[in-house]
Model the fold of this input.
Amino acid sequence: MAREQQIKLTVNGRSYEKTVPARLSLADFLRDHLHLTGTHLGCEHGVCGACTISMNGRSARSCLALAVQADGAEIVTIEGLRAEDGTRHPMQQLFLENFALQCGYCTPGFLITAIELLRDNPKPTEHEVREAISGNLCRCSGYQAIVDAILAASRLELA
Amino acid sequence: MKPAWFDYYAPHALDEALHLLGDAGHDGRVLAGGQSLMPMLNLRILSPAVIVDINRIEALNRLHAGADGLTVGALVRHADLLRSPDVREGWPLLWEATTQVAHMAIRNRGTVCGSVSHNDPSAEHPSVLVTMGGTVIVAGTAGHRELPAEAFFTGALSNALEPGEMVVELRYPRQPTGTGTAFVEFARRLGDFAIAGAAAMLTIRDGICERARLTVVGMGDGPLRLRAVEEMLTAHALGQKEAQDAFAEAAAMVVAAVDPTDDVHASAAYRRHLAGVMAAQALETALARAGGS
Ligand SMILES: Cc1cc2nc3c(=O)[nH]c(=O)nc-3n(C[C@H](O)[C@H](O)[C@H](O)COP(=O)(O)OP(=O)(O)OC[C@H]3O[C@@H](n4cnc5c(N)ncnc54)[C@H](O)[C@@H]3O)c2cc1C
Ligand code: FES
Ligand code: FES
Done:
């Protein structure tokens, strides 16, 4: 069936097998089919970054991928950042300590983006941090606190 | 904000993809990185009946730097170019332009061939391909054909593909020795589409400009090559004083040649002014990198 397809994928370490419509976005799949509502949708056309998840180890907009394209993929969402015992990811902790969120709508996308940045470039300059988060919009924080949190994480040797 | 229904295929072989596209004709669309197509589907600007997802065709994931040039297959992502030391060293114009394409998450998915096919008037890749004199390799059920970059771009968001055809590869020649290049652009925020930008490539021998290429973007029509400026600069001495005068003249020629329109991002007058500034900056930087003044 070209309009529906069965997919098998791993999300936050758990395997799923589901039949989905081909036109379903990965974001809607995560939210509506797997009930992982931590992935937020702001614009649904790639501009705001709220829906950013990690797909096969690289950040991606879940509003710009189809669920069927994730067949065989490994996905990590905000729900997958916490340790099994519930401890926050160090980046989450530093966002908290630096007041890098207010309403929290943009935060899942920022966290995924920030963690990828430090994996690829463990000691970024402030400009590199600003470049890396340029595709994520935050309407509350004014960004400075987010930059502070990511720079604080870079001093921690997260990797 | 949801796409209309479509039939979805994700073939593993190029032949299969070409047959699907051939059968679909006008109703078919290639899905590569999805970073331009998915927004258009979500907003229902487009609602194709058939989507052919090429992401599972491993043969298209080919990035190869050889003696005769660089080959960029249809699944090579912007981020793949940025991670390639060969590209950074041998095709610095392409590398520098790619650093200015969108944001990390978009660069992880979006493809170079997709950018070229989409031909957004502010996009970097079409102008780089034109400036470098690259070639587009097109495939359809009837076979392959090769198009010089300039013949491929046919106006904003348009290209020379026939229904059922797709781009399988781009080729970028090696640049001659003594060449300097630069890609500069101005955008309100890092990673945004440029309001104006310019790509320059200068080959200098003994202080004389042997070959010049200049293209501007953001003027409404896809990459615009400034042949008159290139001719003016060719055989020109480009010492410090001469270069200053020549590039000021080049900027004035660019301002006179472009014909942008007003939009929400910038007025036509501002865009036109910026095109001249970007052109002069690109030429100055290219000259310095070529080892000139
Ligand atoms: C927030 C945001 C910011 C962006 N900023 C920039 C920017 O600054 N500069 C820039 O250049 N781009 C920018 N882009 C667009 C991005 O670069 C896209 O990656 C690119 O334009 C299209 O590549 P794609 O692989 O994603 O193509 P897709 O979205 O998959 O396809 C785009 C179009 O090209 C066609 N197509 C794709 N591949 C082929 C092929 N091989 N043969 C024939 N047709 C094909 C598709 O059918 C479709 O019509 C931005 C996008 C977003 C969402
Ligand atoms: S919802 Fe995906 S980028 Fe805004
Ligand atoms: S914390 Fe509210 S949008 Fe960023």
Q: What stands out?
A: The pocket of flavin-adenine dinucleotide (ligand 1) is lined by residues A 46-47; B 29-37, 39, 74, 101-102, 106, 110-111, 113-115, 117-118, 120, 123-125, 161, 166-167, 193 (CB under 6 Å). Residues 7-53 of chain B form a domain with the Uridine Diphospho-n-acetylenolpyruvylglucosamine Reductase; domain 2 fold (CATH 3.30.43.10). Residues 196 and 274 of chain B are 6 Å apart (CA to CA).
